Amino acid sequence: MKHAIIGQSGGPTAVINASLLGVLRGALSAGTERVYGMVNGIQGLLADRLIRLDTLIAETQYGLLRTTPGAFLGSCRYKLPEAGQAVYEQILDILKRHNIGQFFYIGGNDSMDTVWKLSRYAAQTGSPIQFIGIPKTVDNDLAGTDHTPGYGSAAKYVAATVREIATDARVYDQDTVSIIEIMGRNAGWLTAASALACEGGDGPDLIYLPERPFSTAQFLADVQKVHETKRNVVVTVSEGVRLADGSYLCESLATGGTDIFGHKYLNGTARVMEQAVRSELGCKVRSMELNIPQRCAAHMLSATDLSEAEAVGFAGAEAAARGETGIMMTFARMADEPYHCTIQSAAIDGIANAERTIPPAWINAAGNGITPAFLAYARPLIQGEVTVPYDGGLPQYLRLCDLR
Amino acid sequence: MKHAIIGQSGGPTAVINASLLGVLRGALSAGTERVYGMVNGIQGLLADRLIRLDTLIAETQYGLLRTTPGAFLGSCRYKLPEAGQAVYEQILDILKRHNIGQFFYIGGNDSMDTVWKLSRYAAQTGSPIQFIGIPKTVDNDLAGTDHTPGYGSAAKYVAATVREIATDARVYDQDTVSIIEIMGRNAGWLTAASALACEGGDGPDLIYLPERPFSTAQFLADVQKVHETKRNVVVTVSEGVRLADGSYLCESLATGGTDIFGHKYLNGTARVMEQAVRSELGCKVRSMELNIPQRCAAHMLSATDLSEAEAVGFAGAEAAARGETGIMMTFARMADEPYHCTIQSAAIDGIANAERTIPPAWINAAGNGITPAFLAYARPLIQGEVTVPYDGGLPQYLRLCDLR
């Protein structure tokens, strides 16, 4: 029997290693002899930086690995070329040399692009190596699936943190505005999740998503309207909101950098809004970015998300054992309440590079909030608490460097 | 028997309501018939905005109140005048009219200034009303006490979050710098606490505190030195670090940038350092501010801090029952390990407006880290986990508006 290899790619999530564990356990359960990990994704594979996961990680360490944030194997942002075949040949040669028959890649849109291109090349050249995508992104913007592992925990962290900030904001007996910037370039899923904080507690009064054009004048009017009945206005906004002309709101402050995929670095959206409130409304205003903790706050996991992340990895290994290739594992929702999802799969070519945004009907008419349909969708995904291992007062996480 | 009144003032902490509960229970236990709360501190008292805490909060709600962040009674930032007596007379008249004999104020430096001035005025005018200060600040900068309630939980949140960010930063196979800005204008206690993350996990490589002058050239040299042996450098810095000339670092870099309204933008401290790294070292760099969650992340409490916050409130009520006035309750450390503190009190006149900074011997010679003595001091304060009540996947908190 051939061996398997697993890689992680793109920005980590708090449950990305639960998916790694799921694939590892699924592959071992299917009788795979060796399960390799590629250190730093495709980039590490190309440098032949492989490790044996099945021998490196003891079963007693599974629990620690499951709740460790950050990509345990290391990550990369590597884009396979559109044309040419040298690098494709090189990758298949390396896999063949190690007698690897199954290739699992845990990632988001860009990573699914990698899985798609490799599976296409394998099909074209008659290679029997199977390529399976395991979904992962806090952005929840992968097509073909009800939701993505990583989103539920990030949504729970965002909603809990926004509630705590709103509770803090409530203490002042004067007009205030608190603006909280949340991850989301083109899709507002994570920002919308802040609305969950309003159910039985303090939460945002106004929510701005990249799915709708942003108007500073309308935003200021919205704030003034809330101030008619409430002193402390709490606003959540996606980092990627754009003006009607399509330019990012934050571009007046942007440093001009782009990443390897050509994506502009976005930040400063909330600061631009803060300045607008200060100069136009003159009340006390503060802005903040929730930043990196949104994708790595493993001390605040959704139990639902954690178990699904592991299950989807396990199911990926099962699908490979059945001979499938060129697919991404997906979730199909059967019911909101009681919540029930089944794990399925979809052809990767329809998924790679497609971005799924919030359905228009889930955003309110004014474009400054969400509808109950969104809450029904998101609510099940944040359910359940996870107690991570603590030592010396702090959460304990597993590091590759501690095992080697 | 006369009644008691409690107020909260200044920026909240995650355990400020545990102290409120402690005073309430202590006063009731001492036989006080009525325990009032002033809504929005002294400012609310002056407007006669009093509520009956003993009848408003049922014992079944004590648990929820204990772990609620934000000042449950609302807060204020109000400075009593140095001279004149009109407002002092007014306050004492209001207290007298409600037959209040004990005044408890939960707060930091500015709030202790209020307690001091009121107790002085009462002494000068022969008023029998007692004034007791209950310490509270995430900054840990109050004089006369080993530490302050609120610091331990904020330190735990900071150390855990920095560890998670450092774990996330580790995934990249390229030189990176992550700069994390932490609260602390003149005292680096909270930033120094990030060093606890290094014990048995990932943590900061470099730590810059306001107790030492900051040099951008030295900072860049420090980063380069760490990069010799490590790809991913993690830096923590206090918001209030200053250059040798005494100016704040965040004032120093003239970017020439303006926002959409034509205002020059004053960058944050970490942002200034980010720009220095980008332009001088040219590697991947990101900066972030931990911001408001540092003082309100009640989902991540130190059990030690929580129980001490309640105990110091209770002890304040006991001190009042013994007839004391013009004091702040304090902690005196008996031992680091096993940790043991006793609750005592100190005359308020030596405490108000004095800021306690980190002892020079607890900062390393290079001025970019702390010594083991600091760790021995801080470690006990973050011990123990607290499970707050969850409902619908989110932490539940008590709101005054829900009870009235």
Give the SSE map:
The structure is a homodimer of 404-residue chains.
Chain A: E1 3-8, H1 16-29, E2 35-38, H2 41-46, E3 50-52, H3 53-56, H4 62-66, H5 86-97, E4 100-107, H6 109-125, E5 130-135, H7 151-169, E6 176-182, H8 189-192, E7 206-208, H9 216-227, E8 232-238, H10 269-280, E9 284-289, H11 293-296, H12 303-321, E10 327-336, E11 339-347, H13 372-378, E12 390-391, E13 394-395, H14 400-403
Description:
- 2 copies of one chain form a homodimer.
- The longest helix of chain A has 19 residues, at 151-169.
- In chain A, helix 1 links the parallel strand 1 and strand 2 (35-38).
- The mean pLDDT of chain A is 95.
- Chain A is of the alpha/beta class.
- The first copy, chain A, has helices at residues 16-29, 41-46, 53-56, 62-66, 86-97, 109-125, 151-169, 189-192, 216-227, 269-280, 293-296, 303-321, 372-378, 400-403; strands spanning 3-8, 35-38, 50-52, 100-107, 130-135, 176-182, 206-208, 232-238, 284-289, 327-336, 339-347, 390-391, 394-395.
- Chain A has 2 domains: 3-137 and 298-353 and 384-403, Rossmann fold; 151-296, 3-Layer(aba) Sandwich (Rossmann fold), CATH 3.40.50.
- In chain A, helix 1 (16-29) packs parallel to helix 12.
- Chain A is elongated and about 70 Å long.
- Chain A contains 14 helices and 13 strands.
- Chain A is 34% helix and 18% strand.
- Chain A has a 7-stranded mixed β-sheet, with helices on both faces. Chain A has a 4-stranded parallel β-sheet with strand order 7-8-6-9, sandwiched between helices.
- At the A-B interface, helix 7, helix 10, strand 9, helix 11 and strand 12 of A face helix 7, strand 9, helix 11, strand 12 and strand 13 of B.
